[in-house]
Write a structure and sequence with these properties.
4 strands; globular; 130 residues; single chain; 6 helices; 4-stranded mixed β-sheet; alpha+beta
């Protein structure tokens, strides 16, 4: 997961506009936003963009002790989009969700998402000033 986070954080450094930031395409699609709104108010969507671009991982099995949330079973086809469409939110501890594909999607904890969102915003601000 750390490698994925570093890769996605560095991806933010390649953004030319707010709509190019990692995860913003999913946020725009699911929330039916117009690009002008995202360009003007991208920081208000940063937590969602962080969640769908960095805040989850798909695994075949998960560690003992991790909470399995059985409220939802994700199709597992477009996980990032499914997370937002279902309104899944990070909890105090990381949680796993089953997929119809026989895998598990693990959402990072709220503390991790908050930390990554802060970094996402800092990196995006630096890149968007260029």
């Amino acid at each position: 997961m750390t490698f994925a986070v570093l890769t996605l954080i560095s991806g933010a450094m390649l953004a030319q506009t707010a709509v190019d930031l990692p995860g913003m395409d999913v946020v725009i699609s699911v929330n039916k936003l117009v690009k002008e709104d995202v360009t003007t108010h991208w920081q208000s969507y940063a937590a969602e963009a962080t969640l769908v671009s960095q805040g989850w991982t798909e695994v075949k099995s998960f560690k003992a002790g991790l909470v399995l949330n059985e409220s939802y079973i994700l199709p597992g086809i477009d996980v990032a989009k499914e997370i937002l469409e279902l309104g899944l939110e990070p909890k105090a501890q990381a949680e796993a969700y089953k997929t119809e594909q026989g895998t598990f999607v693990i959402l990072a904890s709220r503390a991790m998402i908050d930390k990554w969102t802060d970094r996402y915003i800092i990196n995006a601000q630096a890149q968007l000033k260029k």
